[in-house]
Structures are given as structure tokens and as C-alpha cells.
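Task 17 of the worksheet. Students: predict the tertiary structure of the chain below and write it out as C-alpha cells. Keep your answer in the requested format; marks are given for formatting as well as content.
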Amino acid sequence: MGFIQRRVLKAVLYVVSFPKLTLAISALVLAASVTLAVSRLTISTDENKLFSSNVGFFKNYLDFIKKFPENEAIYVLVQSKDASHPPEATRWTRLADAITERLRQMPEYVLAVDSHVPLDQLGAQGILFDKPDLVHSHIRQAGELSQLAAIWGKPNAFTKLLSTPMERFLSAMALAPPEKAPGPFINALAGSWNYAIEHPDEPLRIGRGLPDLESLEGPPDPERLGYYYVNDEEDKHTPPQKVLLVRVYPKKNFSSLQANSKLVNTLRDTVMGVAKSYPEFTVGMTGRPTLEADELSTTDRDSRRAEIVALSVIFVGLVITLRSFWLALAAELCLAVGIGWSFGYATLARGELNLLSTVFLIALIGIGMDYLIQILAAYRREARRYVRPTAIWVRVFRHTGPPVITACLGAAGAFFVSVFTDFRGASDLGVIAGGGLLLCLLAGFTVLPALLVLFPTKHKTVISTARYAPPPRERGLLRLALPAAWLAAVSCGIPYALKTSFNPNLLDLQVQNLESVKLVRKLQTWSAVVLSKDLATLRAAQEALQNAPTIRNTESVIDAQDNYAWLQANKLPAIDWGTPDPIKPDDLQKLSNRAVTLADHFEKSSAASAALQLFGSKLNDTPAPEKVAARLSQWQVAFVNELQNLLSKLSPPPLDITKLPSELSGHFVSPDGNFALYIIPKTNLWQRDDLAAFVNEVESRLAKVPGSFVVTGIASNVYHSTSSIESSFYRAAAYALVLIFVLVLIDLRSIAQTLLAVSVLAFGLPMLVALMGYFHITWNFANFFALPILIGAGHEYGVFMVHRYKEIQHDHKRVWGRWDASDRALLLCAFVTCSSFGFFWFLGHHEGLKSLGLVMALGTACIYLATVTVLRPLLKWMIERQELYHRS
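Model answer:
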């Protein structure tokens, strides 16, 4: 008996001698733990806390989203129900404006909302932010318009004989060849003349007495009106369908699981209430806050359901296996005490739970109960042989204490080693779950014995002849049948194991039928970003990325500068503007004649011909020529101003960031003067191979660019963080394996026995991988964490088996029957762990948690079966070979 074992037995004797005092102290600690947790333990739903902010790439990303908060916005998506016949632009914009206005009335939930860039604030700089091909198209069309506009300027030597700009225009168009007469333009003007005459008292404005010249390029769409009207990234048609976006900046509350969900659900209900008045659209919400809230609601619901069902099923399994309602209840009471202590410990150790560490409860239920089961099984065995509590519990912990302690230290260590990684979510889970397992073990060494001393169970006494009778020998090849069958099954599974792959797609971990998950695929959410305060450096970075096969395009204020330079090199001819001469009543007949003459240039059924004929007749038949002449004079002045404003937009001043509306400037430059160069990928970066190719190419090209800049963005952050998490899991698994080997070696003090104990991992885990390949189950960023946990929790089966063998080595009277209490206890441990994690898979909706539960349940089953089919027969053969039962 070693030093530690003697100390443990002395402590147990104290508990057995003073059970009421032990329970009183335990209750006081429990009350203090619960009080501490209720008052000080918080739950943070901030996903940015799942990774260490001290890591360079993640620190840069946090700085980026702080300076450019649009990346953390909620997005309301508006889509046409009938994609082949979308509603007119005004319906889109009215819905976007209605949603924006309604959400702005909710300051308790919303910081800001915007749906478009205000064109009136953007002013003449607007064309600078168009795509280059659109700028070139505008100039080509404006070249034709400027020739027509020149007619409305000051008359030259050839046109000054014509009294008014309107007369000059009609005369010039009548002299032009019919095929060159701009029918749509003339129709728009003639229609506005007619409207102005028909509504003499109405102020002239575009669409109401003045022609909308910009609409001559085609019917307006929301994008031309400044709205966030973008391509549907999921639609592969040419051209793709469009979606309209409203950006919502929420007041995030990370203090509880419910707060963020309540915020998102409130906003969602509000948006859907507004959308009821626009039945031609489908409206939904996505964006990171929405995805987080929906994920939290799902995981919280799944976790609670799985925990309740698991505890219920485990209780029934304990009652059946231990054949005692009281023993099952004592086990669950003891586990509850350990969990309560764990909450107090979590408050002191971390102070808050994060999205990942909140699932520590299922780890305590699935793994912490194993140690209590081993103690109870040993108690039930010894209580059938002895009466005095001291005699019972000394023997229980003399034989069960060492393996239970080793198993618990190994499992806790497998969690604790995660502190050596940068994945803070796993680190916090490791610290809390690892400490929680130790506290569950402590409860098993204190609360459980005290309860059973005060309220012992009655057992049928085992007679000594049955107690010491050795089991019948197994002869020949029979003892090798099960190990051979298992090894053959593992060998046959090798081809399937090689098919097992890693799926890094983070979106596949979500609940696939959620609206937010479906809609996020429609947005271009992926990009890398270069941040620099020096535009020359930013331009060098842009040039380094040109013609990259993985990059679709880049976006920055440099594009506006390039557009300005192109416009300066391709200036429109200057027009000498002046105040139009007024139209006199005597001019009306001449205008009428010229309008009718021009109408003959077009087919009589055309809109331009009809509008001109109507205009000519109105001038001929007017009873108030003075009023008509004055009205047309007003029109001339207003129209010339419209022409000047329209053409001035094609000759903008140099870019001035300070004069841009915040909706646009905030996209390109941060408040501290950092300019952003967005790098848009060609492919879907939800696929890991495409993400790796994109990020590696961006970073390799930018590595050669001189100057001070930072490369970040969602693509870079996801690639590096997931790569770091993946390597963290590998390291954690390696650390756990080394730690467990050392702990088992210290316990067993024999390399051979240590190898036998940990061999269950070597026999069980390959079978897990083979089954995953056979059933097409992939590794992912949720279930990959199961590997170090399986190593930490699974080795206990080998430890318990080898310690059962050592019992017989030390005392040949402790016979190992064909299916004795230790075997039943091991089966019950496997049942508890498989049930606890299995219900995550069976009842869950979140694909990540489901996959974690499935792999943990399947892996535990494989390790247990490897234990009973390979290690157990081997140990029993060693007992027979050494004739331990027959030693005197």
C-alpha cells in the first residue's frame, strides 16, 4: 500500500466515523458554491472570446471589426417571390425605408440602421464610386447627351436667329435624319411639356413636369438609387437574382444566453410585421449576431433536453444494474453535489462561462458518474461480505481508490492540457470540466460514503465457498476467439478508416434548416482586407493582387481615385450655359409648327410622335397664350438647371473623403484614418480548400509589398483560427496521451501493465475511425475535440481491468468470475457515457453538437468493446497461466 493510498484510507475512515459532520461540511460548501455562482458567475455569448486576443492575427481581426462595424451587423434580406418578374424599384425602396424607419424607433435594441447611401449627400462624387465599366458607359451616353445639351446653352452664330432654346432644339431635331433623332429623349421632353402645361400651378420637379433623364438609360433599380442591392451569391444564373439589404447595428448584450436571442427575435418580429404590407417579397434576417443567437437558442435547448433525458435514463440504468433504488438515488445526489461544487469552482477559476464551456455539465454527467459507479459497485460487493462500515469502506477504497484516482486524474488532465492552446473556448472548458471531474471524485470519496453509512442498504450475504471458488478454466483456442475477432474486424475496417475525412466547413455545423443559415449563403460575406494609413502602400498592395486566379476583384477608395483620373482624361466638351430667353406668346405658333414637323420624323403610332402632336395642338388651342408662354419659360430655366446638374455629375471634383456620407465613408476608411482594401474571392470560401488557396495567395503576394499595413478580414481570420484550433486539438490529444501514460505508469509501476492498460485506446480508436468511414461520418471542428476527451475518459476501462487483475495478484481469494461486479460496473460506465453523449446526437438539432455526441458515444462503445473482447480475455488468460487462484 503506497503513501497516497494510506492517506486516502485514513480520510475515508474519518468520513465513515463522522458521516453527519462530513455531510454538514459538504452541504455548507455546496451552499457557498451555489451562492457564489448565482451572484458572480456570468455567461458570455461573445464568440470573439473563444479565441485568445493575444494572438497576432486574431488581435488584428478584433481591431478591424471594431473600426469597421458593418462586419458585425445584422442583415435584413429582401427578395422577390417571383424572380422572373421582380417588383418595380419603388416597392423595393419603400419596403427598405419602412423597415429602416421602424427599427430606428427601437433605440433600446438598435444603435443604427441604414439601407442606402443618401445620393443627395453623396453629390457629384457619386460617379467616382461606380464600377469602371459603368463610368465608361455613362460617359459614352453622356457624349450624345452633351451634343443635345449644347443646343440648350448660349446660341452660336448659326442658332442665334432662333429666339429660344426650345425652338432651336425642335428645329435641330427636325433637320436631323430620322434614324438619328433620339426618340426616347424627345418623347421624355414632349411629355414633360404637356404635363407642365396641364398643371400650370404645380412646382416643376423631376417626374412632375421635368423629364427624368437618368431613367432614359433604363428603368431605375434600387442600386442606382443608392440602396444595397446586390447579387444573390447562391444563384448561378446569368444575370443572378438580386437581394436588397438593410444593415442593422444592434445593441449587443453578451451577459446571458437569453439576452442576445431576445434581441434578435424582437428585431425579427418587428421586421416581419413591416413586411406583411409587402406580400410580393420574402424577408429574412442573417448576419453574425443572428447566426449566433439562433445557434445559442438551439444549443441551449438541445443541451437542456439531452441533460434531462440522460440523467433520467442513467438513473433507470443504475436502478436496474445496482438493483437498488437508493443506490441509484445516492449516486445522482452525489453527482449533483459535485456539479454544484463545480459551479463554485468555475466562478473562482474563470468567473464566466463561454459558448463552449457551458457544455461542461454533460462531461460531468457522462464521465464523472463513472467514478461513482465504480465506488458503488465495490460497495455492493463488499457489503455482501462484511457488516461493519469500516470494514466495508476500507476494502472499497483499498481496491477501488487507486484505479478511480488514476482514471479521474487522466480524464481531468486530458481537459486541463487544453490550457496550452490559444483556443480560449476549449481552454476554459478544460479548466472547468477538469476541475469538475476532480470535485465529482471528491464527492464520491466523501458524500457517497457518508450517505451510505447513515442509510446503508441491505444485501444478501455471499457464502465463503461461493466467494472464493475460482471460475472454470477456458481451454484451447477459445480464449483467443474474441481478441482474434476484434483484431480481424479492425483489420477489415482499415480501408474504411482511410476514407474518413475532415470537413472544415463551419456552416455545416449549424442547424441547416434555420433561416439565418440559409440566407447567409446568399451574401458575399468572405473577404480579406488590407489596412493601411498610406494610400500609396494600399495601391501597391492592390497592384500586387492583380490577375490573381483566386481573386474576383478589390474594392477601396483607390477605385474612386482611378475613376477620377479617367474622367479627367476623357472630359466632356464644355458647354457655355446661359439664362434661356423667355418664350413669348408670339413664339407659340412657331413652336407648334416645329413640333408637328418633328412628329413626322417618327411613326404615327410611336410615343414620341403622339407626344409632339399633342404638344402642337395644345399650343394652337390654348385660350391663355400668355400663361402657356410663361409656363414654358419656367420649364426652360428648370430644364437647363437639370441638364447642368446631370452633366456636372460626370465632371466631379477630386475625391474628398470628409464629404462622403457615413454609410459610404465608414466602409472604406476608419475613424482613425486606416484605409481598407477589400479583396473579394472568386470561389465559395465555405470550402476549406478554396479558403486555403485564397488566403495563401493573398498573403504570399502581399508579403513582397513594402510599407506598413495589416492583412486581416473574415477569410484570413477563419483560416488561421481554424488552422490553429485544428493543431491545438492534435497537441491536446498528444499531451493527453503522454500525461495518461505517465499517470498510469506511476499508478501501476510496471511498463508492461501500463501498456496493457492503455492498449484499449490502440484497439478501440482505430475501430471508431473505421466506423466513421463506413457510415460517412466526418471529423469537424466540433467533434474533433472528442479525440482528447476519448483518450482521457477511455483509458479508464483499461485501468480498471488491469487493477482487477492486480487484485488477484495481491489476494488470490478475490476471484474474478465470469461476469462479476467489476464487469457489471464497467458495462454501466460505458452505458452512462454513451447515453450522456449519445442523447446529444439523438435529440439534438445543432449539427456540431450532434456530431460531437455521436463520436463520443461511438468512441466510448468501441473502447469498451475493445476492453472486454481483447484486454479482459488476455488478463484472464494471464491469471490462469500464473495459476493465481491455486496459490496457497
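Marker's comment: The radius of gyration is 39 Å. The first strand starts at residue 42 and ends at 43.
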